[in-house]
Specification:
single chain; Rossmann fold; 6 strands; about 40% helix
């Protein structure tokens, strides 16, 4: 079950809360496949890794952040499959394998004049947006 106080950042709490409220997650009692696009590992993937129900694939755009997290934050053995994927090209590989997801979270941004803009331009490409739809299970 979702424990709201175990995640510090309010926007990340809202993201996780929305995930648990979604019909595709709420009705499942076995494993749930989640695709997570992020700039670097953080609270959301660490939170999801604590629940054995979730099979998380995290596509990470910041290679340095990924390596630092592996070295200093213990993400190497937390059960999340981390993929160094700055341009979100791994989506095409996933589609060719026939692997489908129950839900996805897009948490990539661009910094423009000191402000974050969501989602990142690498995600807004029409081909990639289409892949997100193709990678969802019918009830996802």
């Amino acid at each position: 079950s979702f424990r709201v106080n175990s995640v510090a950042d309010s926007s990340e709490r809202a993201t996780i809360g929305a995930l648990f409220a979604s019909q595709s997650i709420n009705t499942r009692h076995n494993s749930v496949n989640i695709l997570y696009l992020t700039d670097e590992p953080g609270e959301i993937d660490r939170y999801l890794s604590q629940n054995s129900q979730f099979n998380v694939t995290a596509l990470v755009s910041n290679s340095i952040g990924l390596e630092l997290s592996r070295k200093w934050m213990g993400i190497r053995d937390n059960g999340v499959k981390y993929v160094d994927d700055p341009g979100a090209q791994y989506l095409e590989l996933l589609q060719s394998t026939g692997y489908y997801f129950d839900a996805y979270i897009i948490d990539r941004c661009n910094i423009v004049r000191g402000a974050r803009r969501f989602p990142a331009e690498s995600v807004l490409d029409w081909n990639r947006l289409h892949l997100f739809t193709c990678l969802l299970k019918p009830d996802g």
